[in-house]
Amino acid sequence: MTTAGLRYFSVYQGYGGSEGHKGEYANVIAQFAEDIANGDSPEVYGDGHQTRDFTHVDDIVRATILAADHEIQGIYNVGTGEQHSFRRVVELINAELGTDVQPTFVENPLDVYVHDTLADYSKFQEATGWEPEIDLETGIKRVCSEYVE
């Protein structure tokens, strides 16, 4: 049996609206967009300089299909290879929605917290030819589309 493990980095949806059904487990992009669209200040742990490699779900789906088609084996990272701070995410959402809602910075209540993530997807790219296609700005535009009149 051929098996592969794909390590997805900070996956977010991108066709408008929140991930409300996920509650506190929704990606921060969806949470922040919902808050800002409603005029609420998104809550950010620490100073907002923590980063994530935000990866659009469409890129994840393409990667998963390619992994199956190529019958690869092993463990592979799937991400964009780019880091964006939470502050930057708030900035991009505000720009897309035409708002100026500032985040509320709070002390991080978690004992264990990953401050930064960044995928090196080169091994997966070599095995399948995959590259991410949706940059963060385009993805946030899709997330915010439900809120833009």
Summary tags:
149 residues; alpha/beta; Rossmann fold; two-stranded parallel ribbon; 16% strand; globular
Describe the SSE topology.
Elements lengths: L3 E5 L2 E2 L15 H10 L5 E3 L5 E2 L2 E2 H14 L3 E5 L5 E2 H12 L6 E3 L15 H7 L7 H9 L5
Parallel strand pairs: 1-6, 2-5, 3-8
Antiparallel strand pairs: 4-7
Task: Give a verbal description of the structure.
35% of the residues lie in helices and 16% in strands. The chain is an alpha/beta fold and 149 residues long. It has a single domain, classed as NAD(P)-binding Rossmann-like Domain (Rossmann fold). A two-stranded parallel ribbon has the order 1-6. Strands 2-5 form a two-stranded parallel ribbon.
Number of domains: 1
Q: How far is the first residue's CA from the last residue's CA?
A: 50 Å
CATH class call? Alpha Beta
Strand content: 15-25%
Strand numbers in spatial order across the main sheet: 1-6
* Bulk shape: globular
Assigned CATH superfamily: NAD(P)-binding Rossmann-like Domain
Low-pLDDT windows of residues:
none
The CATH topology name reads Rossmann fold
Number of strands: 8
Given helix and strand content, the structural type is alpha/beta
The helix/strand series, from N terminus to C terminus, equals EEHEEEHEEHEHH
Largest sheet composition: 2 strands, parallel
What's the CATH architecture? Answer: 3-Layer(aba) Sandwich
Q: Would you summarize the structure shown here?
A:
Helix content is 35%, strand content 16%. The chain contains 5 helices and 8 strands.
